[in-house]
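Incident log entry.

Two folding requests arrived from the same account within the same minute. Monitoring flagged them as a possible duplicate submission, but the sequences differ. Recording both here for audit purposes.

Request one:
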Amino acid sequence: MQPTISIPKHWGYPRFALEQRTKDGIILGLQYYPNGTELAEQFGHGWRYALMPNKNSDELFHFQESQIQPLTPEELLHQITGEINFYQQQIVILQQQL
């Protein structure tokens, strides 16, 4: 069974999903700052996202929804294909060690 997240109806639905790849990195978290709150006044109301630039990074960056650029289908294909090739090479190396 998949976990379910409920979003109040008066909040807008987030544009991006957890683990989605973007030009700035992978989305690891999201947070909503409701209009009229102190955080919304400081950072702007709406969705904010926590992104890790790459899987080997120890840095986490926070962006407003309007600051995030999604990958094009071609960029996403290139990125995932590169990872597949890398892991296939790692499998071959491990198999040779057996």
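Request two (distinct sequence, not a duplicate):
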Amino acid sequence: MTSSSWTGMLPVEDTQLAVTDTGGPGIPVVYLNGQFATQGYWKRILADLGTEFRHITFDERARGKSGRSADYSFEAAVRDVDAVLAARGVERAVVVGWSYGAVVAAHWAARNPERTLGAVMVDGAFPHDWLDDAMEVRIRKLFKRLNLVMPLLRPTGLTPRMSAAQQAESNIELGKLSREAELGPVLDGITVQTRYVVASGTSLGSRGDEQEQIRAGLDLVTARNANIKVSAKVESNHGALLKKDFRSISAAIREVAHVGE
């Protein structure tokens, strides 16, 4: 499959998504961002992989250059993957997700095995019951504090055009979806080659070794599903690995892409 490069706004439901497709005859890869991140975070990986791949990136609803929506749910995020691939005429792709995007990638790969050439989860999609009532309170307090600086950062594109309450609810929904009883069966159902690149240390809002406890939930997954393996455990923390350890992520993408050909 060959397509010309394209950058533009794609109408989807009640909004528009900012999409970039490098085109070319390479293996299609669709990249799914962190919860409030933008497609620009992938630039080092795209440059490292080069023209062997056709890179499709996009900003989720109210992130980056994409428009606001009445629906910021997880299911909307999964639907947007379908909408972007359909609009770009891509039938099969490698799906790569970081953080929140890794959970989206896991669901999409489990639901669409015939369309998935392989999957790479970048420090996300760890089944662990980290959300309880106290954590919900912490999340809401965190985003309420962040709301003080968000209006100043929005013109730079560094924060989403969502309210603090909307961001908190999105994070709480992620916690519910990440529970062992919810995410475990999704990962067990993945039948394509899947690789994890796992960070070290903390992430925004975590304390002490909380993040490492969450990552430990992957051990049971890899023991149950032979399709899922850890490709690399890197030194960078959750927020830095796309910048500092992009070569490890590129290597995982190459591995699953060529297995899935």
